[in-house]
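If you are new to this repository, start here. Below is one unmodified record pulled from the training split, so you can see the exact layout before writing a loader.
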Amino acid sequence: MRVVVCADKQDLGKRAATDGAAAIVAALKARGGANVILATGASQFEVLAALIAAPGIDWSKVECFHLDEYLGIPDSHGASFRKYLRERFVEKLPGAPKVFHFLDGQLDPVAECRRVGELIKQKPIDVAFIGIGENGHLAFNDPPADFATEEPYIVVQLDDACRRQQHGEGWFQSFDDVPSRAISMSVRQILKSEQIICSVPDARKAAAVAAAVEGPVGPQVPASILQQHLKCTIYLDPPAAAQLNIKTIGPRIGHG
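And here is the target side for that same chain:
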């Protein structure tokens, strides 16, 4: 794990996207194609905007995989991650991606996990763009996360802390409107990515960041597992990095 503290959110988005774009370009040169995982949420606004503008990517040769999705909401809903990715990413790209494997939370969830899971098993993931939740979750793997399953996608129960975050970010009118279940990429599947670009802005994430970076690795802080990935970089703005004890991070930290 490498930690980079950026100047602000815009700098965070630019740095994360630049490094991720370099990984995509390298895969295109090496294999003629690339496979990418994309996250959603407020933490990804600046990253996705900068990635769209990154030069040198032939998106017609890039396959994209969806990280997670709520169960039971249509893709017309303001909180739908399918809607988010289409409007904020796919429709703004200079060229359409080869294919985007969306998760449909309105279908039978077990069958949908199996369908997209079989697709991703066939693809080496070159780079995963992810975030960390206020409760330390990865994707929708809330604590205590399942660190053992090798299934690529699983149906998960969302805890109250996760649901409060989604409501607090303005995606739902009330806490009760936030779904209690979702499809999530599993922890083990995320870790299979060749490179992980983890973007985490805002002071509300500071405690989760400190626990994930400096605390012990365990399912109560799902993002702590990123300590075990050799090509994971966490990009922070100063508020998100506020609770880190830099002395304990040593050479892993960089400042911008």
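Two things worth knowing about this chain: DSSP finds eight helices and eleven strands in the chain. The chain has one domain: 2-255.
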